[in-house]
Specification:
The structure is a single chain. The protein is α+β, with helices and mostly antiparallel strands. It folds into 2 domains: 37 residues, no CATH class; 67 residues, no CATH class. Helices cover 45% and strands 20% of the residues. The radius of gyration is 17 Å and the shape is globular. The mean pLDDT is 90.
Length: 106
């Protein structure tokens, strides 16, 4: 599992046949990742409910794209945390604070 062991290691389970596996197919994560590439602006701006965009300062969403996401969809609040892509795991307190503040504002 490489660097993902910290996130998925505790999920490994022994099966009835004595083998070990995760409760999901890792290739499904790869397939899901492939689907996020492309132009999804129409989907993003079609939403009308308030949105919280939590951007990781060391993550995969460039700062200019995150700003465009915030600016192009009314009601979007953006919070940037000093974390990598897995924000909720790298800064759980900051993530929880951001979500709680956002939900309290609704």
């Amino acid at each position: 599992m490489g660097p993902m062991a910290a996130h998925f290691g505790a999920l490994v389970r022994e099966r009835a046949d004595g083998s070990w596996s995760l409760p999901f197919r890792p290739l499904d994560i790869v397939a899901s990742e492939d689907l996020v590439h492309g132009d999804h602006w129409s989907d993003w701006v079609a939403g009308t409910c308030p949105a919280l965009l939590v951007r990781a300062a060391h993550g995969v969403i460039p700062a200019d794209m995150a700003a465009a996401m915030r600016d192009r969809r009314p009601g979007t609040r953006m919070v940037e945390l000093d974390a990598d892509h897995v924000v909720y795991a790298n800064d759980p307190a900051g993530f929880a604070d951001a979500v709680n503040e956002f939900l309290s504002s609704l």
